[in-house]
Amino acid sequence: MSTAVSALEPDASPAAEQAAGEMRAARLAPNNFETLFDAHYERLVRALTVVAGNRDVAADAVQDAFVKAHLHWNKISRYDDPSGWVRRVAINRLRDEHRRTRRKRHALQRLRSRPTAPNDVPDIDEFARLLAALPRQQRLTTALYYVDNLTVAEIADTLDISEGTVKSHLHDARRRLRPILENEGHHD
Known about the structure:
With 188 residues, the chain is mainly alpha-helical. The chain has helices at 3-8, 14-27, 33-52, 55-71, 73-76, 82-113, 124-131, 136-146, 152-159, 163-187.
């Protein structure tokens, strides 16, 4: 049997399998992350651009995948197909981006279809000017109550304070604003 023919025959010995595994590990050793990146980055960006329709979105997905691969390179370099792992992570990132974009588009459509607020809403600039005279916590509580129309319980939950504290802040804010509003009412 010639040497060329014997070289084509598979060698199933454990030593040969171990040597092949060591060669693969050497090719993908921690210092060869750059080799994997150089070999696959641009191709993967081009492929995902076709899917995403946008090179920037595809590049972001691939970059994120390579960043994750780099962070866990000691583990990923031992995988049979590290480039396949990067590809899968990039595709998943692209899918997540697509879902996020679709949800955002639907939310904007829902918001556009909502009826506009009534015209009797107080002027925010005027309200902000009045609230500027209040301490920060009273200003925040008052804005959440009158502008955002939250209940006392919702404000308490949002600010992680008791309902009694919310009521106290609202009471103190009204007490401080009353003379200002009365004084402005006499000048009109």
